[in-house]
Amino acid sequence: MPAVGVHGQVNNNIMPFIQDTRVEQKNYQSNGISSTSKSKPPEQISFESRDVVTIQPYQGDTILQDRFGSALRFTSNHTELSPYLQKPFWEGSTVGDPFVALSCGIDGTKQSGYYTIENPDKDSSLIYLSSTQKINNLNFSQDNIGSDVKPLSSYTDSQVIISSNRLIFNARQDEVVLASKTDIKLATSNWAVDIDNLITQLELLVTAITKMTHTTGTGPSGPPINVADFNKVLNEIKSMKQ
User: Is the distance from CB of 25 to CB of 79 less than 8 angstroms?
Assistant: First the structure.
């Protein structure tokens, strides 16, 4: 039987110095907390143990789960699910296609039970890397996220999913680059915007202003007296077009 790294298992006692030396006539096996130096009785410093439910393993998985309710899962698609207590939150038709889930603050680990499973809607923060998987229970923060967006429950191409209460992208020395083959969608509580359509409408608006005339007592007026300013803006907008 190969060696098993028990110190990587959930709720294993912290181990610094625990086997550095033997303390004569004392037995700390039943209370395996750390000793801060040789021959010194163990003392608890900062670690507070908690009961953490193990996430459901599927055959072939590699799982790193900590003692506090977070986990990194390397897994794949599974089609025969009847033997498992918890069913996966991802779904794919081709067995063996890879899927990676990094989850912080898994909601179910705080509950009771033999196994739990990650919950995209309730876990504190998550990053998923998919190849062919659909995600069945992750709801967007806005119902309307723009036109022609395929739901996560039916999208089967590769994708990266990031979800939390807040997302910060901080480029310390250079640009933040967002590039899309089709479009970029922005959705807030008041607006759902397709970037392509937004810039197209802006171009049409400025074009209309440059041609604007008004009815007067002597006939139609000429274009705006500052039409050159509008033309400059229009040229800048057109220069952005791919």
Answer: no
Q: Which tokens go with 128?
A: 């998923």
Q: Percent helix, strand, coil in the chain (nearest 5)?
A: 15, 20, 65
Coil vs helix vs strand at 100: strand
Neighbours of 75 (CB within 10 A): 20
Q: HSE on the CB side for 166, CA within 13 Å?
A: 2
pLDDT tens, 105-159? 999 888 888 899 999 999 999 999 999 999 988 999 999 988 888 999 999 999 9
Q: How far is CA 140 from the centre of its chain?
A: 12
Q: In 3-state terms, what secondary structure has residue 126? A: strand
Distances, alpha carbon 110 to alpha carbons 78, 114, 237, in Å: 26, 12, 53
What does pTM read for this prediction? 0.79
Calpha distance 11→233 (Å, rounded): 62
Strands (E) located in 13-97: 54-55, 62-65, 71-76, 90-91
CA distance 147 to 241: 21
- The answer to whether 42 and 34 have CB atoms below 8 angstroms apart is yes
Q: List the beta strands (DSSP E) in 26-97.
A: 54-55, 62-65, 71-76, 90-91
DSSP state of 29: T
Question: What is residue 187's three-state secondary structure?
Answer: strand
The Cα 72–Cα 62 span in angstroms is: 8
**What's the CA gap between 22 and 35, in Å, rounded?**
11
